[in-house]
Amino acid sequence: MPETADPAAVFDRPAPCSPLAEHWGPGRHGASDGPPGVTATERRDRALWHVDAGRAAAPATLAGLTLPRMPNTGTAPEGPDGPAALWLGPGRWLLVLPPRAPRPAAAGLSVVDLSHGRCVLRLVGPAVRTVLAGGCLLDLSVDGLPAGRCAQTLLFAVPVLLHAGTAETVDIHVPRSYAVALWETLSTEALVHGLEVCP
């Protein structure tokens, strides 16, 4: 069946409120010699949709994105700043879409809006993977988590979804109730490399 848009999904849909608003200190922090090793941005320009096919046959595409079937892979045809479909498990995906995009829909799918329940941190720079590796047992090198791949894991004891957009760009999807604790740890770990926090 063709995909259908839910007009109610884009009507008076409030923008997510950041749990980091009182903890986000824009500017340069830590080591100040040379360019920053880590640049941090909170991605608020997105809507997050959890898609579960259950026992139904999932469509090949949804919201214009190919739904990846290979574990720990993602589809982001426009690059790290564009829409993405991230594999979460058999028949389950996370769609990262523009904030005003209509609700994805297809027959037999369960689709849940997680935009208000998740915080997305983007870390960019040559020291990003070193900082993340300090709190994760996975191999987060470029070989272990190449561009386009994703991984569900614990990061400094916090459950997260990591998505590597490029060799030096990683998005961290974290439940909003853990966002402050994770950010405080990440920002502290990044100080030695030089941390630039974007407004």
UniProtKB/TrEMBL annotation:
It comes from Roseospira goensis. Residues 1-39 are annotated as: Disordered. This is Heterotetrameric sarcosine oxidase gamma subunit.
